[in-house]
Specification:
By secondary structure, the chain is an all-beta fold. The protein contains 1 helix and 55 strands. It has 7 domains: 21-88, Immunoglobulin-like (Sandwich); 96-171, Sandwich (Immunoglobulin-like); 182-254, Immunoglobulin-like, CATH 2.60.40.10; 269-330, Sandwich (Immunoglobulin-like); 335-413, Immunoglobulin-like (Sandwich); 421-498, Immunoglobulins (Immunoglobulin-like); 507-621, Sandwich (Immunoglobulin-like), CATH 2.60.40. Helices cover 1% and strands 45% of the residues.
Length: 628
């Protein structure tokens, strides 16, 4: 055993320390709320813990704190302590400016945020509309495809936050209007000269030839030679310097070599001997010739043409040619009409114009200077006019081609027939008798037409026909008299037709007559209104035939063999046939009474033995004025 040895041992005794963790709520940046400090953990400490705050609180959490520094002493169950300070900061309002770049439909939008602080936290919503990893940055990339509004929440390290919004508006992509692009093929064929428009400027032309990858151009008015005829699709693609531009396409029809196309201006219609100006207005033509048949009639661009079929041939500097034909047609109005009419005064007359061109649509305008003339329709091709004096009518005729003519028609007043009267030889007859009708005093050469020929006229077209009425009553005859000019009048004459029987007293022989040559009852007649034929015989008392006649107009004068017949009483036989064929025979005596010419004082005495017979419209008085 060793004695007196020493050994020194050093022992380190560590003082156990505790730590304090807390959550500090700063004063709100925009909501104007107070701060708070909450102890969340006491690492390496042994519970329970006691707290001693500089504001006098002994709780684990203190609230309603103003901005400032707060001291805390924490003690655990074994006596360990920890002193620490916490600072409640005054919140600063977050300010930011958001700017979204212009973008076209289908492009991403870059958003730029300019804020008033550093170390900010960004959150974009909805995050699915942003490129991956950019929805929490200050400069995100929006990848949505529709117009919308996005929200940005910005927070700072002390817990302040603000929300901002920014609209996203896409600009539509527009394609150029290619309707104004001219694709003109050279007359030599296959070469197409394109003339672009201001809208196609900046576009790249792809001429649609799949076998020519180099078939593109950036010229504003390019030219391209196609390999063959056909239809090609030309595509215009926007270059990079164009904003929001879309491609466009159109088709071009490559026809190959063709004749020059051109227009002939001028009216193909002329009127009569006039001319029309035909023109080829194209400065690209170096040679122009007009042909009528095989003959060159003009070599200028403007040609004064009459009616005919013309051919014009043109040529340009490339040597290409073109030919067209045009027919210049004379559209003159062709009508026929009578230039002179004769019309009756006051009678309507039709003026007739005949259109010989059936395809013409004619318009008429009739005029006259006379205020007394009546034109029923001044725009008719056949107006009805009424005049009282000789008049000249003017008609202006126009067709649908603009041609017009003026025609004149002279209408003269025609002669109206003039007569004195129409008479009949008798105004009363018996049925079966005839009567002569006569137009008296005709002043010219006229035609006649008796319009009631049913009443038995022997001729209806002469001025003096014979009428034999076939019915009793009042017969009226009307004659139409027309002059050489066609003017007409009507005249009338009446006739009384009786139907009397063939018997006494309508037929008779007077039984007394006085043959003294005084003009009264000097002859013995067979009397009657309706007698057609007669056989009249007179006998003396000895049976001798002293008188015989078959003529109704002849009467016995009292003589026999040139001397006064002896005796005063005579017998007679009258065989009578009336109109219509009825017959009768009269027998009787008649008395021969001698009366002086100058003594009529005893006329009344004669009536005592005279016979008086009255007939309608004719009175037969047989008697003497003086008896010797």
């Amino acid at each position: 055993m060793l004695k007196g040895c020493e050994q020194t041992i050093t022992i380190n005794i560590d003082q156990l320390t505790i730590d304090v963790e807390a959550r500090v709520q700063n004063v709100s940046c925009s909501q104007n709320t107070l701060g708070a400090i909450t102890i969340t953990n006491v690492p390496r400490g042994t519970a329970p813990f006691t707290y001693a705050w500089s504001n006098g609180s002994n709780e684990a959490s203190i609230t309603n704190l103003n901005a400032g520094t707060y001291s805390l002493t924490v003690s655990d169950a074994v006596g360990c302590t920890k002193e620490t300070n916490f600072t409640v900061q005054e919140g600063q309002a977050i300010e930011a400016t958001l700017d979204a770049s212009e973008a076209c439909v289908g492009e991403a939008v870059n958003i730029t945020v300019t804020s008033n602080a550093e170390n900010l936290i960004y959150q974009w919503s909805p995050p699915s509309l942003f490129a991956q990893g950019t929805d929490t940055t200050a400069n995100p990339r929006f990848i949505g495809t529709n117009d919308t509004i996005v929200t940005l929440t910005i927070s700072n390290e002390i817990g302040c936050s603000e929300q901002f919004t920014v609209p996203i508006d896409f600009q539509e992509r527009t394609a150029p209007d290619v309707s104004g692009v001219i694709a003109e093929e050279s007359c030599l064929g296959l070469i197409i000269n394109f003339n672009g428009t201001p809208e196609t400027t900046g576009y790249i032309w792809n001429f649609g030839n799949a076998n020519d990858p180099q078939g593109i151009s950036i010229e504003a008015n390019p030219t391209y030679t196609y390999p063959a005829i056909g239809t090609y699709t030309v595509t215009l693609t926007p270059s990079e310097e164009l904003t929001c531009a879309a491609p466009a396409q159109f088709e071009v029809n490559v026809k190959g070599r063709e004749e020059l196309a051109f227009d002939i201006t001028g009216s193909p219609t002329i009127c009569g001997d006039s001319t029309t100006t035909l023109a080829v207005n194209d400065s690209n033509f170096t040679n122009i010739k007009w042909f009528l048949g095989e003959n060159i009639v003009d070599s200028s661009s403007n040609f004064m043409a009459q009616a005919g079929n013309y051919t014009v041939r043109v040529e340009n500097a490339e040597g290409c040619t073109g030919t067209q034909t045009i027919e210049v047609t004379d559209r003159s109005i062709n009508v026929i009409l009578d230039e002179r009419y004769v019309a009756c005064a006051g009678e309507p007359t039709a003026l007739i114009i005949e259109n010989l061109n059936q395809n013409d649509q004619l318009r008429y305008n009739w005029e006259t200077s006379s205020p007394l003339v009546i034109i029923d329709n001044p725009n008719s091709e056949s107006p009805i006019v009424t005049i009282n004096e000789t008049t000249t009518f003017t008609s202006t005729i126009t067709n649908q081609f603009g041609c017009s003519i003026v025609k004149e028609i002279l209408v003269e007043v025609g002669e109206v027939p003039r007569i004195e009267e129409v008479i009949s030889s008798r105004d009363t007859i018996n049925l079966g008798q005839s009567v002569d009708l006569s137009v008296v005093g005709a002043a010219g050469t006229y035609t006649y037409n008796w319009i009631n020929a049913g009443n038995a006229l022997n001729n209806t077209s002469i001025p003096n026909p014979s009428a034999t009425p076939n019915a009793p009553g009042l017969a009226e005859y009307i004659v139409q008299i027309e002059s050489m000019d066609g003017c007409q009048i009507e005249a009338r004459v009446g006739l009384l037709v009786l139907d009397l029987p063939c018997e006494p007293p309508f037929v008779f022989v007077p039984n007394v007559f006085t043959p003294n040559s005084d003009g009264n009852n000097d002859l013995l007649y067979v009397r009657g209104f309706n007698i057609d034929r007669v056989h009249f015989r007179v006998f003396n008392r000895w049976g001798e035939l002293v008188f015989e006649t078959r003529d109704l107009s002849q009467g016995w004068d009292g003589l026999f063999r040139g001397e006064i017949a002896e005796g005063r009483v005579f017998g007679y036989i009258a065989e009578i046939e009336c109109f219509g064929g009825e017959r009768t025979t009269l027998q009787g005596n008649c008395y021969f009474i001698e009366v002086t010419k100058n003594n009529h004082s005893s006329a009344s005495a004669l009536w005592a033995f005279s016979i008086c017979n009255k007939l309608i419209f004719e009175t037969v008085i047989v008697g003497c004025s003086h008896i010797q």
